[in-house]
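Section 5.1 Outputs to date
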Amino acid sequence: MIGTRLSRLARVAIGMALMCLPMAPLMAAEPASATATATASTDNPTIQEKVVRTCTACHHENYKIPVMSIFKTKHGVMADSRAPFGDRACMSCHGDSVEHLKDITQQPDVLFAEHSHNTPAEKNAPCLTCHESGIRMHWKGGQHETNNLACVDCHKIHTDHDKVRDKKTQPQVCFKCHKDRQADVLKPYSHPIKEGKVACSDCHNPHGTVGPKLLKKNNVVETCYQCHAEKRGPFLWEHPPVREDCTNCHNPHGSIHQALLKQRVPFLCQQCHLMNFHPSGTYSGTGIPSGGGAAQQLLLRGCENCHSAVHGSNHPGGRRWQR
């Protein structure tokens, strides 16, 4: 019992002694800044740590161009040799930049800013050393590459939120160039792009494709079938314009007509079907003259009132896409 009390008193005495120690040594052990945290101090720093210490001495978290957020991305993982920072850190993309290190008024070897001394091809070269496979294998010779577009025109590297890789914010990036498509999306009928449910990259591959209009599939029809599989068929009775190209009738980016139609029915149908004669004109129950004239089915109504299976029909009697 006495031994237990003594041990308790001893623990209390030790605790009070520790509380009386000066705090200076402990405070000195804390990192001086976020830079010191990002680059752990060691006796033998790696080349990555040396480079990061040198660059972040100026390009710190309060710098006019924020760069520290790159450590929150895959590019900034120093322990992964596949990442730029796992190789030569900042120099992996910006080059050795010897003159810039001597004089900060001199630009780095590769500067990704909009008005830099580098051409789009020079800006793209560091990116393509890693990103020239898979969905980006057709970049060279693609529409964006031939129009002198740089990767950084769409992508932002020194940030943990790249807008173009987010469905909700991606259209904002695309619309910087494609103003006409932005106008289409704002029309009464469009795909749910504003709601963030559909993005441009769901249909298009901006890095290049073998098909037209940078479509992900070989043609328009195959691209539309990714979502609209019920229109795929095969059908016993096929509607030729549907099989040829969905954009014969629809404007996929937006329309003032229902179902994204280019024109309202019957004017849309009459682009192909000149209705000087219509089978329903041989009878009339409303007093309209019969015998080749326009019947009541055509007046102020839609062709789809009868031809409801306009995309194709598997019914034995659906030759005219009526069922």
